[in-house]
Every structure is written in structure tokens, then in C-alpha cells.
Amino acid sequence: MPSTTDLEQFLITGLSLGGVYALSGVGMVVLYRATGVLNLSFGAVGAMGALIAWQLINHSGFGFWPAALVSVLFGGAITLAYGMVFGPALAHRDPLVKATATLGLTLILLGVMDLLWPSSGGASRSLTIPTDNNTFQVGQISVTYTNVIALALGLVITVATAAFLRFTKLGTAMRAIANDRDISAALGVPVRRVTAAAWFGCGVLAGIAGVLLADLVALDATSLTFLVIFTLAATLIARLRSIVITFVAALVIGVVDAELTPVQSLSNYRDMTPFVLAAIALLVLNRRRVITVGRQGV
Amino acid sequence: MRGMHHHALRVRLGVALAVVIGAVLLAACGSSNSSTSAPPGSSGGSASSSTSTASGSSGSSSSSGGSTDTSSCGPKAGQAATGTPINIGTIDTKQPGTDFSDGPNMINAYFACVNANGGVNGHPLKLFVQYDQTQPAQIAAAAKQLIQTDHVVGIVGVFDLLECTIDQSYWDQLGIYEMGAGIAPECWSTPHSAAVNMGPRYSSDGAVQYGLSQHVSKIVFVQSNVPGTGYIAAGPKALADAMHVPITELTANVPINDANSLALNLVNNAGSNGWVVLNFTPPEALVILQAAQKLGLEDRVKGWGCSTPCNTDFLAKALGPKWNHKLFVNAELTDADDHNGPEMQLYKAILAKYGSAVAGGIGSFSQMGFLLAKFSVGALDTIKGPYTIQSVNTAFKNIKNQQTEMLCQPWVYGPYPLHIPNNSDFTTTPDNGKMVTAQGCTPISNADPQIAAYRKAAGEAPSTNPPTG
Amino acid sequence: MKTETGARTEEAPSGAAGGPGAAPGRGRGARALDARSLVRPAVIAVLVICFLLFIPSIFSLYYVDAWTQVAIYSIVTLGLGVLVGRVGMVSLGQGAVLAMGAWVAARLLFATGLPFPVVLLAAGLITMVLGTLVGLPALRMSGLYLALITLMLAGAITVALATINFPNGGNGFTGYDGSTVHIPPIRRPSIATTDPAFFRYSVVAAILMFLLVLVHLRGRPGRAWAAIRQSESAALAGGINTTLYKLWAFALASFITGVAGGLVAGSYRYLNSLTFSTQDSITLLAVVLMGGAYSMTGAVVAAILLKFLQALLNDWGVSPDWLTILFGIGVLQVLTTAPRGIVEQMPKDLARLWRLLRGVAARPAAAREPAE
User: In sequence order, what are the residues at sequence separation of 6 or more whose Cβ sits closer than 8 angstroms to the Cβ of residue A125?
Assistant: First the structure.
């Protein structure tokens, strides 16, 4: 059985991953609220951004920070491009269709990544953030500043986004469009510009999450792409609405997953955490809701 | 109105397509700059055709072009083989994340060299490659395709995750003796398969054996949770039990999502005088070791070990100096950068001249491909009559005492119930961005019952090569 | 009102756009309909028999295997097609459900001497129970939730199966012995031990599953699904127990996917966790959308896209990554411009291409005429 020192140590490793899941979750919820699109390509976009950063650092002589900037901009650009091209075409479709369409982008990116960065000859890659080298001691283990950044960014972006949606004009416009796109347009909200901002913001967060996860998890297209499942669980528990609940749920998922590591009988099952927690949450939520009818999603 | 809408849509789709294509091209440009490690003239490894004839049409005209001579690969320098081809088949894993195509591509390069220099008794060699995506039905069908449609007479160079398991009974029926570099237990435990690599079990044995030699109080052995973990873990357990050292055996699902927690768990399990041994692919092992480093765990145990996949300079570079003489990797292949005997020169020359499809260039996969091609061509040379499944596989089975610079001991096939011809190895450790030798060639202990059984059948081959490095 | 919906479903299963061209034909002639209803099954029967006889003799074993996979996976795509096309529920976990079916079947085949068809039936039923339980939490909520929870399920099942492993002839509940050196193959039915025979066996099993689904579509469930697809609130108001019928669809899809899992076990003969991945579930949805979720032919087209195309490209030495990219483009194309899949889109596109070519051919001719 794990001791309390164990629990403490795994709490720290869990929190930093949870922080990145939170940051990703916030990005997905904001986009969903502004456009009705649940962006399932979030992980794939981040993965490709991270691989581009790796390419620039190892083969074009870039420093880490410029390369990371490029990858974040790539995330923003490709997500914005997708949103501008396919967003209007699918604007009046069911949220389910909109989400499914982003799986198309996911598959394209997965194929392209494996073509461009193949694993032939046992090739392997890694992306290290310079802040990995600065550590401080907590109990028996050292904590890198990357861990701190991951958690802090998750928190900062959650708070900033919540404030942005509530207090700024653009944020209010996003909420209006989320409510009713057509009426908002009729009232003079610049729908195109506002949704573009949401797409770009979501992509930027995907880029940031991609670089962080490439360092914290692994620089591997498939695993980064499907880490989106951890994030999805958090957004689902928040019913795709509350940014704060998304943040908390993401941290809980990260911590539960980590804390199960030393429990030998459950250790290898611990990556089922997102599914189990989300299923429980749905069951509990369901008890209070009679039925959801119609095609509006939530 | 509706028409306009459609028109707008089509324009948008066109734009989308242009964006996607643009992104692909852009990234492709980026990556083509990058392939500095690939041999000159590399075409970037775009999937080569599956049945490329290894006829030496490209390089036969002038063999004086390169700085090194490749002509020693065949009997008649500069003379292209024109007889009826000898068909050889292979089945290899090639799927997203797991691409073993460097192995067969290197064999193709070697065959091209042989064909350009007289062939095998005048016959050119032709390699039929079947790629699979770890789907068992596909692998079984590929074997039948090779035999019944392509009429291959031998199976050489199988670099595959599952093939040994799936095709064993088929090879058994046909009397085929395959040669490869595998992962599945059946590659070492059956009469019909012999591998040039040690495989996960015996390489893990080697890594654990080194740890045991450092007077540790506990071993923690962890491996990726893929089929056959129990078979692999039995080796290290037998070794630790023989030394009366407690051992904890763990598995971790791959891809690893939370390496920090895993690393922490390993260290907590091992204790300060313990030894952690990893059996993972390089990227996964790197993720665990880097996590340990970030958490400051590398000194919380006496030492770290790793099976042979970790033996790459990539790992040494990525890890940095903290791991110098802290991590000890079991190694089976001589480092091509540090050695330049005649065999290694030939390997590099063939790779440079014929190996444009070998995307990874110099590396363990192409080294093993070279060895398999060399051993099989040597065996084919001995056949005087027609090349049939029977004559070819009898010749393969009779391969013995193959001297090589690349392994610790001569390679042998032989009529044994099991085949572990590569059972002596050395140990390397990172040293400022390179892997250097920590311990020379050492036989794996007989404490592993499979090794003991093999040595009983085949005798103990002497470790001929001097300690390397 | 209700019967009309039913009639439309039979003729041309109505998608979001409704069944075009189905309504006016009602009174025009029952006789024409009769003749057609006789001709179509006859044509299909002849095609199937040709298929059964000729594929093993004209194709190499490599492609016989590919066609076996097409037959088996057409059951999987049919199940997903029912969910997506008939009821409007998107499941992103069908690959995982298939893996569950294969696991159950392999376990039964190792543990018992039951005849193969009985094992298939049992695998279908057990998978049905498991699959339905899993979908339960999301069934009463909107479709997006079902898609998300099933995607998470796919990830979770991948993790669970990697941990408990597929049976390999060992003892205990999991039937897995990690130290086995010689893994025994999973047995096949005694009448279908060879590859061509197992191909025929799979096709027959697939036909039975298609008939089972057809019976459902023609019956009350089919009408209820069509009503739910049109409007869930209207269906509810019309007295349809929407939860029951959604659950029914989920159970049916899980059942036939479980049966397909049993066929996968018999076809592969060795199962392991490397064979099934989370991405499979997404790829499955992609081909179902491309093939067309609204028709049964679409299921076959989807299976051909998934398995035959893969075998073909592999044989040609083309990287499987291109297939992934193609599926991605296919999803976007289908969702934005051709919601009924390529089965219905292709003829239209070809007709447009033909007109275009004729136009191009006619123009120079027209230009030449006055000159002569």
C-alpha cells in the first residue's frame, strides 16, 4: 500500500500533467461555446506543432523558444484555416457533425505526421524545454520549472479566459454567438471575426499544449493525438460549459491517474481513469436530467 | 441563391485542399533539409516498391565511382549476373510508429551488390517483401503469397513483431528454415527460426546480469506490456533467483502517458541499493529515463540498466552527462562508427552505393539486414544443384561458424530444437553524448534455462571477438 | 402518418433530407414494385454465388484473405451504419466493441469444444450485453455525449485488453499464460479450416447478419428509428419509447459486431493487443461515412475501402499513411458536400464528369464544323 510520502510525490507528478489537460480543456470548451465545434483534432494539431518545433531545432538550427513560437503559431494557423474553410459550411449542422468533421482533420494530420517523421530504423525524437534543467526540491523529489509552468499556465489561462468571456466585448460577442448565431448576426455581432478569434485561440492553446506534452509525455504523434481523451473527459464532466469545472476535473483526472501508479493491481489499468470518471459523472448528471431532446447538443 | 452557396462551398473546399497540400509541401521541404543522417542520394525513403528486383542495373557500369570498394560482395567483380533469379521472401512490420523497413531495404541493397558482381553461381537474387500492419491474418496470407505466388525458395530477413508466432506451423510443414531479427518468443524457441538479434528476453538477461554483478540488493525489471511479457520476464527472474537477489517484475502500458509516475514507482520499488532494468523501445526508454532525471531520481538507486534497443548514441545525446556510468545498456552489435574492419567497410560501402532506400542509414536495423544477407548468400553459394525450397533450406540449416566483426561470437543455424545463436554480448554506458563500452563480450548465464538448453544442444560457441571499444 | 414513415424507410431509408423520389411511386403500380422486388433479390443471390465461387479461384490467397476481411468487416460497418445512418447516433468505439467480441470468442474457443456457430452466437450475445451497458450512461443525452463517451471507451478498452491480454490457451479467467512459448492457434470450424473455405464461411455469416438487420429495418424498430432520426421530440410525442429503441439499435449493432469479432478470432487465429488500436474506431467511422451510412451497400463499400484497399496498397508498396490521409479527406468531403456517402455520390459525380467530357468533346467539333 502506498504511504503518505508516496501519495505526496505522485500528487506532484499528477498535478503537472493535470495542468496541461486543464489548459487543453479550456481551449476546447471556449471554442465549443463560441462555435459549437468540439475540436477533436486538438491533440493532433499540438503533436504536429511539436514535431515542427523538433524539426526546426534539430535540423534548421533554431533555438528552443523561436521554434516553440513557430509551433504555437502553426497550431493557431492550421486551426484557424480549418475553421474558416469548414466552419461556415457546417455552421448550421448538428454539433455531432461538427465534432465528427474534426476527426477528418485528425486523420489527415496523423497520416502526414507519420509520412514526414517516420519511425524507420528505430528513429526516435524528443523535445526538451530548457526549464527542465531548473529544479527545486519538494520532499524527496525535485520539481522542474516545466512542471510549474504547466500547472501555472493551466490556472492562468482558465482565469484569464473566464474573465475574458465575462468582461470583454469580444468575450460577450462569443457568448452571444454561442446562444444564437443568427440573431447575433442580425444584431450586428461580427460573427466571422469573432469565431475566427475563437478558432485561432483554440489552435494557439493546442500548440502550447503540444509542446508541453511533448516534453512531459513523449514526442510521438499517436500518443499526443490520443491524449485528447484525457482532456475530453474533463470537458465532458464540465458538460462542455464551465471552464472552472473543466479545470478542476482535469486536475483530478491527472492526479487520480498518477496516484494509482504505485497500486500494483490497478497500475496498468490507470489510464482508464478518464473513461471511468466521465462515465460516473454522466450517470450522476443523468439522474437529475430527465431527457435532452433536439439537436442543439448540450 | 443555392447555386451560389454551392459555388462558394466549392471554392472554400478548394482553398482547404490548397492549404493542406501547402502544409504538406512546406513540411516536406523542411524534412528534406533534415535527412543529413541518411546516406547520400537518399530519396527520403518514400515507400519502395514491394517487389523491387535487386538487379544491379544502376551500379554495375562503373564500380570505380565510390571511394570504397563493394565488389568483394560477389564472386566476379563488375560482372552482372544474368541467370534465372533466385527468389527470396521476407515479411516485415511497417505501420505508423513501428517501421522495420530498413532491414529488408538493406538486404535488397546487399543483393543488388551481389547481382552486380557475379550473383550466386551466376544467378541474380530477387527479394520479395511483404509488409504487414501487425494483423495476424495478413501475416499468414503474406507467407502463402510468398510461397505460392512469388515462388520464393527461402525466407530471409524477417523483421517483424508477430511473424514467428503466426507462420511457424506453415514453415514447419514446408521445411522452411527462416532467418530474421524478431521479437516474438517463437523466433528463438523453435527448430525453424534463427535470429541474428538476441531478442528481448536474452538481452534483458544481459542487462540484469550486469546489474547483479554490481552487488545490488534488489532488481526491478520493467517492460512494455506487449504480448510475451511472461516469457521475457522468466529469464531475468531465473538469473536473479540463482544469485538469491530479490526481483520485482513490472509491466507498463505503451505509449507511456505518465512517465514521471512510472519512474518514481520504479525507484521507490528498487531502493537505494537497487538496480532498475528497462526493456523498452528507445523512445519509451528515453521518456522514462528523462522523467527520472527531471525528478532527480537517477541517484536514488545504485544503477540503471536497459536492454539492447537503448544502445544508440541518440539516447546518450538526449540524456546528457548525468547518466555517464550510471546507465548500463546491454549491447549486441558493434558500433559502426568506431570500427572499420573489412566487414564494416563493406557494410558502409554497400549502404552508400546501393542503400538509398535505407531511410535510417547506419544503424542496428541495417547492420542486422547486412548480416542476414551475408549469411544467406554464403549458404546459397554452397548449393551446386537446382535452387529449390529443399536445397536452399538445407543450406540455411547448415550455416555454421560464420565469423563476423559485428557480433560477439560466430553465428550458427544448425539442426537444433531451439536457436539462440546470439548469446554473448557486451555492455555500454553513455559518456558525454556517445555510448562507450563498459564491459566486453560476456556470455549470458546458464541460469536462464533456455540458454542452458540451447548450449546443451548446440555447444557453447567461443566468444571470439575481443572486448570492443 | 406512421405507416407512411414506415413505407419510406423500406424504400429508401430516409436521411436528414428525407427519401427523395420515394413518395410519388406509391399508387403508380404495385405490380412494378412486385417485379422489382423479385428481380433484386435474384440478382443479389446470383452475385453472391458468383462471389463465393470465383473469388477463391481467381485471386491469390493473399487477396482471398483480403476479401475475407471485407466480408467480416462489412458486418462491423453495417452495425455502425445502423447507428449513424438509421438512428443518428455516432459511436466512436466500434473498434473496441469488435475487440471485445474477438476476446470473448477466443476465450470460448480455447475453453470449450462448442461448435463454431454457437461460439459466434455466444460472443455476439455477451458483447451485446457489455456494449449496451457501456452506452447506457450516454443514451439519454444528446448524440455528442454518446460519441465522446464511446471514444473514451475505445481508449479504455485498448488499455484493458493490453493489460489482461488476449487468450492464448492458458488457464484462469483471462485464459492468458504469458510464459507460453508455443502459442496454439485459435480453432476454426471443421468445415472451414482452409482459407478459401473460411472465406465462404465468413460470407455466409455476413449474409445472415445483413438479413437480421434487414428484418429489423423492415419491422417496428426500423420505423421507430426513422422517426427518432427525423425528430426525437416528435417521436416521443408520437408515443415511441425513444430510449428503448435507441438501446435496441445499440444492442443490435453490438451483437453483430460481436459476431464479427468471433469471425476475426477464427480468421486471425492468433490475437494480441497490438492488433487493435484506438485509431481503428475512428477509421471505422470514417469509412462508414464515406461508404454511405444510409444503405446496406454502403456497408460493403466501407469494408472494401477499409480492408481491400489496404491490401491492394500494401501489395503495391504504398505506405498505409496515404490511406489514413484519404480517409481524413473523405470524412470532410462527405460531411460538407455528400452526406449520403460515395455510393450515392459517385454516380452523380461520374454523370457530371461524363457531361463535362462530352461538352469538351463537342466544343472542338462544333468549332471545326463551320470551317469545313
Answer: A51, A54, A58, A117, A219, B283
| CB-CB contact of B174 with B148 (8 Å) | no
State the CB neighbour count (10 A cutoff) for residue C24.
Answer: 7
Residue C214 grid coordinates = 434487414
Residue C328, chain B, CB below 8 Å: the answer is: no
Task: Check: CB of residue C346 under 8 Å from CB of residue C290.
Answer: no
Domain boundary (B301, B331, B361) is at B331
Do residues B117 and B231 both lie within one domain? no
Residues B136 and B213 in one domain: no
Report how many domains make up chain B: 2
Same domain, B372 and B223: no
Q: What residue type is B338 in one-letter code?
A: D
List chain B pLDDT tens, one digit each, 469 residues. Answer: 344 444 444 444 444 444 444 444 444 443 333 333 333 333 333 333 333 334 333 333 333 334 468 888 988 888 899 999 999 999 999 887 788 899 999 999 999 999 999 999 999 999 999 999 888 988 999 999 899 989 999 999 999 999 999 999 899 999 999 999 988 889 999 999 999 999 999 999 999 999 999 999 999 999 988 778 889 999 999 999 999 999 999 999 888 888 889 999 999 999 999 999 999 988 888 889 989 988 889 999 999 999 998 888 888 888 888 899 999 999 998 888 888 889 999 999 999 999 999 888 888 889 999 999 999 999 999 998 899 999 999 999 999 989 899 999 999 999 999 999 999 999 999 998 888 999 999 999 999 999 999 999 988 766 555 444 3
Q: What is the 3-state secondary structure (H, E, C) of C52-77?
A: HHHHHHHCCHHHHHHHHHHHHHHHHH
B-C contacts (CB, under 8 Å): 121
DSSP B402: B
Is residue B6 within 8 Å of residue B330, measured between CB atoms?
A: no
Instruction: List the single residue in C with minimal CA-CA distance to B133.
Output: C275
User: Alpha helices of C173-241 — where are they, by DSSP H?
Assistant: 195-218, 220-230, 232-237
Instruction: Indicate the length of chain B as a whole number.
Output: 469
Give the residue numbers spanning the domain of B146. 71-198+336-422
Taking the mean position of all CA atoms in its chain, how far away is CA C217?
A: 15
Contact A219, A51 (CB under 8 A): yes
Looking at the DSSP bridge assignments, the partners of residue B276 are B220, B304
Q: How far is B457 from chain C (nearest CA, A)?
A: 18
Question: Cα separation of B313 and B408, whole Å?
Answer: 20
The owner of cell 422517426 is C227
Residue among B138, B183, B186, B187 with most chain C CBs within 10 A, to mutate: B138
How far does the CA of residue A287 sit from the closest CA of chain C (Å)?
10
Rounded CA-CA distance C291/C281 in Å is 15
CA distance C184 to chain A (A): 26
Among residues B132, B94, B125, B93, which one has the least CA distance to residue B109? Answer: B125
pTM exceeds 0.95:
no
Closest by Cβ to B257, choosing from A85, A88, A223: A223
Q: Do B96 and C321 touch (CB under 8 A)?
A: yes
Amino acid of residue A190:
P
Query: How many domains, in total, are found in chain A?
Result: 1
What ipTM does the predicted assembly reach? 0.91
End-of-domain residue from the set B305, B331, B357:
B331
Domain CATH for A196: 1.10.3470
Note whether A86 contacts C332, CB cutoff 8 Å: yes
Residue B194 sits in a domain whose CATH number is 3.40.50.2300
Query: A154: domain range?
Result: 4-116+126-288
Chain A touched by B250 (CB under 8 Å):
yes
Let me know if B389 is exposed, middle or buried by CB neighbors in 10 A (0-12, 13-18, 19+): middle
B245 and B144 together in one domain: no
